[in-house]
Design goal:
Blueprint: E1 2-9, E2 16-23, E3 26-34, H1 35-40, E4 48-49, H2 51-74, H3 81-90, H4 95-108, H5 113-128, H6 132-141, H7 146-152, H8 158-172, H9 182-196, H10 200-207, H11 216-234, H12 240-253, H13 258-269
Helix pairs in contact: 2-4, 3-4, 5-7, 8-10, 9-10, 11-12, 12-13
């Protein structure tokens, strides 16, 4: 049986206390405890403490450290249960303490995968224009259950998706270069939306809702730029009919309509 000789508050952490025990004629540092445990076990100078109580205090304090780590991790943003488990394991906390702390956080409402998924979807929609396929992939990586994700996605209907895409497309129109065809520009935007996680069907339907002004002057400038580049590559290699067909094919692949291609070639001949 040992006796508490003194209790000192830590200099760097005012919520933790160092406990010293009398052993024989000497006073030795025994352990440090959180303020909550100090109060719970009524630790004071002169209190007798046996080995089993000492072991219990150490165990409870380790759990308290695990809990404090978890709360600090949550202070930056919401976390999924899987994220929290991975974080505490990385910090080399005992598995029993991890499980106990996660259960407490679930009961207290600090961890909730349903709310986490909803908040994650809202946040990414606003900041990164991410679509449902991308969001689902990311939530699965964070350990959120598939059924929970599907329920959270209910607020992100196809109509909402199309509204967001249309707004985004209208903003992109000002970025169109005079060096590419309108068709190529639309294909570029469509590919970007696929990368962001939207389905091809929703993208196509949204594109039909946007009025893309296809001014002839702009299209003509683009075909002249691309056509002159292609001519320099083809001249010297091909002549006559073969030269003209190859030029047509390459311009068509660049997204220019055939009537504009024919006019460009006709203008060139004249």
């Amino acid at each position: 049986m040992a006796v508490i000789a003194k209790i000192e508050i830590q200099k760097r952490n005012k919520s933790r206390y160092n406990v010293f025990l009398t052993k024989g004629q000497s006073v030795e540092y025994a352990l440090s405890v959180d303020e909550d445990l100090l109060i719970k076990h009524r630790l004071t100078k002169g209190l007798e403490i046996d080995e089993s109580t000492l072991i219990q205090l150490i165990d409870e304090d380790e759990k308290k450290k695990t809990y404090n780590l978890a709360i600090n991790f949550l202070s930056y943003r919401m976390r999924s249960v899987h994220e929290m488990k991975q974080y505490l394991e990385k910090k080399e906390k005992e598995q029993k303490h991890i499980n106990e702390v996660i259960n407490e956080l679930l009961q207290q409402g600090f961890l909730n995968d349903e709310e986490f998924a909803k908040a994650y979807i809202r946040s990414k929609q606003l900041t990164l224009m991410k679509g449902p396929l991308k969001l689902k992939q990311e939530l699965l990586q964070k350990g959120v259950d598939d059924a929970v994700i599907e329920a959270a996605m209910a607020s992100f209907s196809e109509e909402v998706q199309k509204e967001k895409i249309v707004t985004w497309l209208e903003k992109q129109q000002s970025k169109k270069s005079g060096k590419v065809s309108s068709k190529a520009f639309k294909e570029k935007l469509s590919n970007q939306l696929v990368t962001k996680g939207y389905s091809q069907r929703v993208i196509v339907e949204a594109l039909q809702l946007v009025d893309f002004p296809e001014e002839f002057t702009e299209e003509w400038e683009a075909i002249c730029f691309q056509g002159n580049k292609m001519k320099r590559k083809l001249e010297g290699k091909f002549t006559g009919w073969e030269y003209e067909q190859r030029l047509k094919q390459q311009l068509f692949r660049k997204g220019f309509p055939m009537d504009v291609i024919e006019q460009y070639i006709s203008e060139g001949e004249n």
